[in-house]
């Protein structure tokens, strides 16, 4: 297959690929997501599959990481946030509830570097 250009209106500084979704970080510290959304892993407040990148409603994103069916974000709005599937507590919010949009992780630090693998 020939690679195709992803249509995002700013320079992309970081990307992360999850189980069946992708995250993109723009130079303006704006996050975008596309792909499978069945558990809320896109952080777009929907479970509808997104064929093109959509902007995530989270301010000042500095880092992001896509897991199997969850995503993690560092931002100025919520220092450490997560969205998506939470059946094993992987979102770190103290519950087993899925989150369709980024929610605060229970304990966090200002300077995190992570990879969900």
Structural class designation: mainly beta
Oligomeric category: single chain
Indicate the mean pLDDT: 91
Please give the number of β-strands: 8
Which value, in Å, is the CA radius of gyration?
13 Å
Query: Which strands sit side by side, in order, in the main sheet?
Result: 1-2-3-4
Q: Can you give the helix content as a percent range?
A: under 10%
Distance between the termini: 25 Å
Shape: globular
Number of helices: 0
**Poorly predicted parts:** none
SSE order, as H and E? EEEEEEEE
Main beta sheet, described?
4 strands, antiparallel
Strand content: 35-45%
In words, what does this structure look like?
The protein is an all-beta fold and 117 residues long. Helix content is 0%, strand content 39%. The protein has strands spanning 12-17, 21-26, 31-35, 50-55, 61-66, 70-75, 80-84, 99-104. The strands form 2 sheets. Strands 1-2-3-4 form a 4-stranded antiparallel sheet, with no helix packed on it. It has a 4-stranded antiparallel sheet with strand order 5-6-7-8, with no helix packed on it. Strand 6 and strand 7 form a beta hairpin. 34% of the residues are buried.
């Amino acid at each position: 297959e020939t690679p195709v250009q992803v249509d995002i209106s700013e320079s992309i500084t970081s990307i992360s690929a999850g189980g069946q979704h992708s995250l993109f970080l723009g130079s303006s510290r704006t996050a975008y997501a596309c792909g499978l959304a069945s558990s809320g892993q896109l952080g777009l407040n929907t479970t509808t599959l997104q064929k093109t990148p959509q902007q995530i409603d989270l301010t000042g994103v500095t880092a992001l990481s896509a897991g199997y069916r969850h995503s993690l974000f560092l931002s100025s709005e919520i220092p450490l946030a997560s969205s998506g599937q939470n059946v094993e507590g992987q979102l770190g919010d103290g519950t087993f509830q899925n989150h369709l949009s980024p929610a605060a992780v229970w304990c966090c630090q200002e300077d995190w570097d992570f990879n969900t693998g």
